[in-house]
Amino acid sequence: MEKKILPPEMSALRPDLGEAVSILEEKAPYGAVSLSSREYTRYLVDNNQERVMPGEPTAGVILTAFDGHTMREKGVGGFHRDELLKGAKEFVSGIHFEKNGKLDPGKERVEDFQTEMEHDPALVSTQDKLDYLREMNQRVKKIDSRIVNARVSFMEMREKTVFRNRAVDLAQDVQRVHMSIMVTAMGEKGVVMDWASKCGTAGLEVLSFSDDDLEKLVKNAIGLLDAGRIEPGEYTVVTAPGVSGVIAHESFGHGVETDMFVKERAKAAHYVGKRVGSDLVNIYDDPGYPGAFGSYFFDDEGLPSKATQIVKDGIFVRGITDFFSATKLGIERSPNGRRQDFTRKVYPRMTNTFFGSGAMPLDELIGQVDDGIYIPKVSSGMEDPKGWGIQVSGHFGFEIKNGVLTDKMYAPVGLTGYVPDVLESISAVSNDFDLSGGYCGKGTKETVPVTDGGPHLLMKVRLG
Amino acid sequence: MLGKIQKALSDNQVIKAWTIRHEITHGFQQYELKKSTESLREVTSELFTVDVLCDSENNEGKPGSGLGTVSLLPGADINSALEKAVLTAQLVHNEPYDFAEPTSIPDIELADYDYLEDPAGKIQGVLNTLKETTASFPHVRLTAAECFGQEKTTHLVSSKGIDATQKDTRVYLQWVYIGGSGDSEVETFAEVYRRRISDLDLKEEAALRAQYTSDLLEAQGPPSYTGPIYVQGPTLAVMVAGEMLAGSLIQTLSSATLKYSGETPWDIGKSIFREDVKGDDLQMWANRQLPYGIPSSSFDNEGIPAQRIALIQDNKLAAFIADQRFANYLKMQPSGDFGSIEIPGGSIPQSELQTGSYIEIAEYSWFNPSPVTGDFACEIRLGYIVEDGKRKPFKGGMLVGNLLDALADMRWSKETGFYGNYLGPKAALFNNLKVVG
Question: Which chain A residues are within 8 Å of B434, Cβ to Cβ?
């Protein structure tokens, strides 16, 4: 039974999708129809301005016809019943499809899903959202007079999707929220900034910041005014969960998206079943992780979410797939087929990618370090699936001396290395866990929401 | 629908000013996997974006302005969308400002009319040319390529009397070269955005990437080094002008928005550098009039016409880049969107920059300096140690420094090139940067 999770124009079109799939499959071995609507709005309050900025919504129909060799798609903006069936006929007419009886549409399933929320952003007024941001701005800027600006922003993103093929009829209503506070300070060396953020596939209930959170944020921003550059070289390093996660993302995340395998771009393709890190290394991708920013109920090709273990006890197990690459490689699909919006193709993409936790308390882990660096926050990362180089830009780092974290700060802290060397050097894994949310591209395009995370890791890497 | 939206806006007495942007896009996408086609896509979309400006008051009764924006798909409920935009505008409190007044809008060359004759065929043609060109490099394999073409027509009307239309095109090409075999395989990944197919410089770019792929097979580990660093072509363009769709450090620090909020240390008439300039003096324009520049436009989303702004003259900031609101606040002329970076050619031929011993950085993993300080520590994907005219490739290691300090101590080449969002010297020699091996 369909829950009322879709806008009227999508609900009105849904009963006709089965017929459209049949029309596509009169010519093609596999046909599917998706309805996709994505809307987001960003609210911003800083010391000098207020803004409410709706992003350009995308809403349209995607017709897919696949013969195991070439995936053909037509994306049409809007939801027009008259054009659907006619468009499906026109789309496949004149195309020669290879015969291929092996294209599995998945297990039969009819179900609707919706993000569980305590406070649905759609039910909270714009006035209340702005008032909350104004209050946060006031709370932050009164902490220290050296703050030049406190930029508080909130983003709500609503994705409504229907997927239909000959076996599957699914709909989902996914609500994502993201809030960030960016503090800017000015000193003799120029401008510095730091930020804190919270996010989730959830309602507004996940977006609260404590006074401690805000004071720590301001303290770090002010600290950056006097931070030094680190002397380049190899260091013993402790990475916080967000930094650990970006290492997972850039090493055995992008590098195991299996379109990279079929394009011969991934070194990992030659390492299935082989050691790629120490026994302590376990890496997962899980689109079903409850409440995480990269989560969904089914992927953009109708496959229900479940976790994939990518690396187990230091051994590379498998990659993450979309329908095309799994078909090409002859491997089991994972639910990682994602598209930016209806105007874009599906690729195998990460969702929530993380190291598995260990057993060691964090104090004990840091206590092992005589002379090292703690990297609490990451600003960016870059993959190199073929060369297995890794670049992670730490926003700043703190010195660890004789097993104790000090206030001595370095910024920025670039972390580089050869992926197997970095993962092999991991000698301790803490028993905590956290995820940080953000956005991930493929090249400079195809943006999708993701999280990265895990526990704290102890490793040896090159910093600069 | 445009007329209905206009009428609804004009009938609403609460709205102080409005603009409507009507955009129609049509694109083709082709994805090649080795010798076959992985995917073919065709996409069309249409959108109306409406900005309304209303008077608003803050909690203390201070009058101000508020902006409300709403986007409508064809057939959407106009009245309810506009009601939402007005409500938002009345809740947002900013210092008073107004929308852009109509002025003469220049006709900037933005569309590839050759592409528009047969979009799908031209995309196929680009990929065919790439395959044919690659066939002349037997040491590399083309394992994947993507080519997109898109045309967009934008019609902007406003309550102030602006009524303008522009058509633009955009072509995107990426491809992967693989060299070697087995565990020693290497790859080169290329990604190019342009407005015209002819600006892809496909044969030249393919030859360069093929050479890089070949050199990666021979590359050794990185040296530890401090001294002259040579950079050319698209790698230099990214260092100076930033990534095509992300902007640059210079764009950030010259923003009137950041000037108003006190977040940029730059000031008009003062040097942008924190130390004395030891190399060439810096001259720079923010140019939205550049023909076929990716950030170029005849008018931006506010209807502000394309301009070529003298941004940095003799190392000193000459102007801030201001949208309509912050131009009002800072009492300056609005410049609109930033555009491309334009730098005049230097005085030294490229060949003279390549004398003596130096290191050339061919490709970074990602050149991503801090957006406010310019500090960077970026992994080198391919570089060359050049001594006595001999080039030894290396990979790995980091280039470490500060972008503004680097720009204050460098020489520009005489020859210039166009790389989508950058028109300027083809090469540069940074006199003193550090490579960490």
Answer: 232
